[in-house]
Please model this.
Amino acid sequence: MTVAPDPSLAPYVGRFAPSPTGPLHLGSLVAALGSWLDARVAGGRWLLRIEDIDGPRCVPGVADQIQRQLAACGLEWDGPVVFQSQRDAIYAEAFGQLLAAGRAYPCGCTRASLAQEPRNAEGETRYPGRCRAGLPPGVTHPSWRLRVEEVSTCFEDRVRGTLCQNPAEDVGDFIIRRADGLFAYQLAVVVDDAAQGVTHVVRGADLLWNTPRQILLQRQLGLPTPQYAHLPLVTDAGGRKLSKQKQAPALSDNGQALLVARALAILGHPPPSALAAGPLHELLTWACAHWAISRVPAHAAIAIDAA
Ligand code: GLU
Model:
């Protein structure tokens, strides 16, 4: 690395945490590259965590493919890859802590039974608290929800500025353990970020409004809150998010420098055109020398013509 780390940011631990539901596409490369650059320029560590907790949604072979794609783009991670599917014990411990503190309650509401409830701006149902007073009779496999108090939760996003949400109003009591027994993303991500000592979360803006829920959980569990930065999502020309599940074109196996150059441009760091043709290591060295998170567009999404 040719850039001297900024000592005010050390020690820095960043991470990339893809769900292996499909290979990386340009949108996920933007998130990976932004978080890698931010960590590397700070002289920090960059961890890779495969978020395969939701087994039924994971596609066999994709976790390996993602690792190959990252390595091909020059995004090397530090230490062993962590798999959420192997970490049930630490999620169970955190869940037990919330139960013991009376923070969680069982719920028999199904998605279908909540279909008519109002939705928030993200399209999520605001849970009306039906099971707060007790589980209806006959429910044998409840989900578990966190009891969310009315409180405005604010955080300083390094890209988007100060953001506040009252999760009680916007999402209500949210699920931390699903009816099928799996721990929910919100719980697992908070436990893992803390267990791995993550200090800086840099990820896609699709997760922006999950952050207040995660901060609430961190407070309930007595865990530190990392610094957050949410990078613009990449959408197609029609404004649709590129999504792994919707089979957005996966990154091709060749032309990585060109792809990384496209991702850099989306991140507000268009490289000189001579560098976009490679070699890749020269492009990444240029990117490290020029990276400033203040140059990342503070937008929820950026549309591109073709993925
Ligand atoms: N696993 C999540 C995803 O692929 C990302 C989680 C996170 O970065 O907090 O969308």
